[in-house]
Design a protein that fits this description.
15 helices; 477 residues; metal ion binding; six-stranded mixed beta sheet; five-stranded parallel beta sheet; globular; alpha/beta; 36% helix
């Protein structure tokens, strides 16, 4: 595989001047072990068969190269399998949009079946999907879709290779696939609720063909230990380590798997300030942190926290999760040391992020339908700060983030209660791209400003918003 990856890297470096086509095998924006291995193995398979349609096949890891060290289990398995990290191709190293405009791009999606909104212009280039998540994709004659809710996407890739070109499956590729299946299926333990008969069948196939693969239990423990190693990471790095983004209208959510108990996470120093900075930097309205740990029987223990400095965002997201019936998360409220973090014990420990994401996506679809864009400056008022400013950074007057809320009239319209006479005491950030929301420590200690200054600020912000309207976080989905 080393020679294959080096040719891929060379092809990408020369793609700006070349005219040949590129067939990119793209994993999801979390770039977890399953996504990475599925991309590498399926690209290698296509390069050895006629499935590449004469184009150069390149596996692309869907994160910036600088974030890859955070995927410690990925790094571990690649090193153990003898795959050189420097030969990998990352999302910030290839211009997919440029290749598509030049009509030189084909896309195969692995471990996800729909493109995020930031990549929606690439949709015409998608020719195949292999995934194990809930099918969201609209059927198309131009795109072959293989979707089966097994424990690991690597299981489906292994099946394809075994059926179409078993000679392609060498020991190095087998070890990558085996590691991804074993980790995603939690050491094939039924108690974890992840493994399916097909996962077991294909993992046994790999074991029988390559009896010198690392022992399953030892490999799982090594990968699990690497995955849960968050020593020395900042809160931002912990959230980015395994994050997926979803959006609807003006609301963008970061859904992060956090590898520690919620109690430990909430005790992190300056957590409230760091969460606010994370949302501001990456333009999220809220963070859903799903913590996970395992007992000695490989049974998962899950807790969940919803953070937002906007009361409306926090309450609406929390209620969507609390009220979910398919699946029910069986929430029990937990005490939280912060007013802007809602905490829960998740009784349904088998509901992983793969099952929670559809709940949030359905909520965001409804949110988008209700959303009202407020354009008049007089419909907004500056918010008071309610967070302890201790330790918050200082800002120059011109650079200082401002906080605003929608007027009562527009809040009622957002919530569909205008005609009922109900008045909701929620605060909505009018311009999340250019200002922070209420209760953020970044905005601590701001002086009150006049109505004329507010109008002037919104006039300026209106221009900025127009210039930046196409900005998107690369991992948005």
């Amino acid at each position: 595989m080393e020679g294959f990856l080096q040719r891929c890297s060379a092809a990408i470096k020369g793609s700006a001047e070349g005219s040949s086509g590129i067939h990119v095998i793209l994993g999801n924006e979390a770039c977890d072990l399953d996504s990475m291995v599925s991309s590498l193995a399926f690209a290698y398979f296509l390069s050895k068969t006629s499935g590449s349609s004469g184009k150069t096949v390149v596996p692309v890891l869907n994160i910036p190269r600088a974030e890859f060290p955070l995927r410690s289990d990925n790094v571990f398995l690649l090193k153990e399998s003898g795959v050189p990290l420097e030969a990998l191709v990352f999302r910030d190293e290839v211009d997919l949009a440029g290749l598509h405009r030049a009509k030189r791009l084909m896309l195969t999606l692995v471990d996800h079946n729909v493109l995020p909104s930031a990549d929606i212009d690439l949709e015409d280039a998608v020719v195949e999907v292999i995934d194990h998540h809930h099918l969201e994709r609209t059927p198309s004659m131009s795109c072959s879709v293989t979707v089966e809710t097994v424990g690991s996407c690597a299981t489906l890739v292994t099946e394809r290779i075994h059926h179409k070109a078993p000679e392609v499956l060498d020991r190095q590729v087998a070890q990558l696939l085996y590691g991804a299946i074993v980790l995603d299926c939690v050491n094939m333990a039924p108690e974890a609720g992840k493994v399916t008969p097909k996962d077991s069948q294909l993992s046994c196939l790999l074991e029988s063909r390559f009896p010198d693969l690392p022992p399953r239990g030892a490999l799982f423990q090594s990968l699990q230990s690497a995955k849960f190693d968050i020593s020395g990471l900042s809160t931002e790095q912990i959230l980015l380590k395994d994050m997926k983004a979803v959006s609807g209208g003006d609301l963008r959510l970061a859904v992060c798997t956090v590898y520690m108990t919620l109690d430990v996470f909430l005790q992190r120093r300056s957590l409230q300030q760091e969460l606010c900075e994370f949302c501001h930097k990456h333009r999220f309205g809220a963070v859903v942190a799903m913590t996970i740990s395992f007992n000695e029987r490989s049974e998962p223990h899950r807790q969940l926290a919803v953070y937002s400095s906007s009361t409306l965002y926090r309450e609406e997201v929390s209620q969507a999760l609390e009220k979910s019936c398919n699946p029910s998360l069986s929430f029990s409220p937990m005490s939280s040391p912060f007013n802007n973090i809602k905490s829960y014990l998740q009784g349904n420990a088998l509901a992983s992020r793969k099952k929670v994401l559809p709940i949030l996506k359905n909520f965001l679809k409804e949110w988008d339908k209700k959303q009202v864009h407020c354009g008049e400056a007089e419909d907004f008022e500056e918010l008071d700060d309610h967070v302890d400013p201790t330790g918050s950074p200082s800002f120059d007057d011109d650079a200082r983030p401002r906080c605003f809320s929608a007027s009562r009239h527009h809040r009622r319209r957002l919530l569909g209660t205008e005609d009922s006479g109900m008045e909701e005491d929620f605060q909505v950030p009018a311009t999340p791209m250019n200002s922070l929301v209420e209760g953020c420590p970044l905005d601590a200690g701001l002086p009150r400003i006049s109505a004329e200054a507010i109008l002037e600020k919104f006039s300026c912000m209106g221009g900025e918003a127009g210039e930046n309207k196409d900005g998107n976080w690369p991992g948005e989905q």
